[in-house]
Amino acid sequence: MNGFENHAGFNITSTKLQVVEVTGESGKLKLSNLSEVFFNIPLDFDTDKETILLAKLQSAYDELKISSQLISKTISVALPLKLFLIIQLPFDNTLLYWDLLEEFRWELSVLYPHIQPEELSIQYFEIEKNMYITKSTAIVSAIPRKYIELIANFSKNNNLKLKFIDSSHFAAERSVILSDKAITEGLTLSVHISEKTTSILYALDFKPIYTNVCTTKSEKEIISFLEEELSKETAHKINRKFISCAYISGESVTAELNRKLEYSASLQFSKFNP
Question: Where do the domains of the chain lie, and which CATH numbers do they carry?
Answer without folding.
Answer: 7-81+146-171 (3.30.420.40), 83-141 (3.30.1490), 179-271 (3.30.420.40)
